[in-house]
Structure formats: C-alpha cells, structure tokens
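Consider the subject:
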Amino acid sequence: MTETLLVTGASGHLGRAVIDHLLGAQKVAPANIVATTRNPESLADLAVRGVTVRAADFDNPASLENAFKGADRVLIVSTGELDLKSDRRLRQHQAAVAAAKAAGVSHLAYTSMPNPEPVSPVLFAGDHYGTEQAIKASGIPYTIFRNGWYQENLFLALPHAIASGKWYTSSGDGRIAHAARDDMAAAIAAGLASGSKESQVYTLTGPQAYTTNEIAALVTEVTGKPLEVIQVPDEALTEGVKAAGIPEDVARIIVSFDVNTRSGRIGMATDTVETLSGRKPQTLREFLEANKAALLG
C-alpha cells in the first residue's frame, strides 16, 4: 500500500521545495501528495500536476483536521508567526498535532531548530520546544527535523555590511554551519518519503561551521570587498538594528541569534543532509559565489 504524504505551508519557500523534491528525486506520485495552504489558488500549478491541494488554516483547528484526513505521513512546517507577546505560534502547532491525532495520521514530522530547550537564548525557541513536547505526548511516531540556519539568512545582514564595509555583530567566536534551504528541503523530503516507522530526531546543518570573522574573510575573497567585523554588546546591536527601521521585537529576535551563536549552541556541523538526501550540500563558498551579484546589490 502506498502512503499519502502531506506537507503544510506548501506555498512557503521550504514547504514548496519539499514537495518539489518529493515529486522529483523521491519519485512520489502526485496522487500520493497532499499540499496544504491558506491560499489554495497559489498552488494551482501543483493541482494541475495531480497533487491534491487543500485549504488549511493553523488558526482554525477544524480546517486542519479536515485537511489531514486520509494522510498517512504529515509534515508540519513551522509557521511564520513570531509574536513575542503571545503564544500564538505554539498554539497553532499544538492544534496541528491534535488534528493529526484526530485524523489518524500514522507518522508526524516537524521542522524545529537545533537545541530548542527552554535555556535557549533564541526568543522563539520555546515554540519549537513546546511543539516537540506536544508531538512526543501525542503518541504518534515522529521525525523531528531540527533545521539549522539557512545560508539565505545571510541576505539579512551581508548586503548592507558589504556596502558599508562593516559588519556589526555580538556573535563573538561562536560558529554556525549555514545550509542551503533547498538542501534541507531535499533531506526532509527524503525523510518524509522513507516510510520509516521509528521516531527520530535529525539536526540539519551545512558541512562546515564558521565564525563571523571567517565568513567575512570568505565574503572578501569572493566579492573583493573588504569587510571588517565589529563586535558590539547585545544592547548596542539591538539599538543599531532598530535604527535601521526594524521593529523592536524583530530586532530583539535578530540579536538573540547572535547570543545563541556566541553561546555555542548552534556550532555543530552534521552530515545529516547528505545522509538523508544522498547529495552533497552546497558549501558556504558556493553560496556566496552563486549570489555574488545579489550580495553586492
């Protein structure tokens, strides 16, 4: 019997990429894939290819249960709600876990983050930790993908830093093994399509971890632009990010990434992406070279 695989957030970058890899490298028949989104019209091209597209709203538990009906393996892609003043995101995820249990889903997958335990400096880590706990409490066999930081996240800081020649950070000597979003999607698709019945936790990262100084040196090699790293206190960095027009809560989240890096909680480099997907992940240098024009503005 062929399993039906469901992916939430299918109109987002990660969810859509997972579905593309299910159809491509994993050779899953379109009829065995369900893509859910708040806006089904945005996935009309998938519907034309034979993928089942369903409406699902994480703020509407009934819509989630209806969307999950008939699905064997469900991937919950974490939502983009990052409201620090409420637990909305966690409640959304808990509703999805409850809907999966009510719908009789046999395996549940989730996109989390490395080391999300309550001591994490990352201000939204509790959403991930709470969701992981809800999944484990549900009794449904699970696969938790703890996604490291995307290489694409560097677009948030590098273009401005390259233009000014100065990269302000509070990350210290902490390391990050950034990975391409598409490489993570390939690994997640492979795990989702594997048919594994065991509960697993995977940490997905790039192949090599770098300090901010080492990243800056690579940027200079690739672009030819000198880039000085300037370490500043967390409070000063927060004020600087706010001065660039970023709302205070978002600025606090951004700085919490640097605190997390400095504390060594995201310095791991794993081979899980290649082990699951069977393909070599993109290196940081390859990412910088491929995106040189965009980084230079």
About this structure: The radius of gyration is 20 Å. The chain has a mean pLDDT of 97. The chain is about 45% helix and 15% strand.
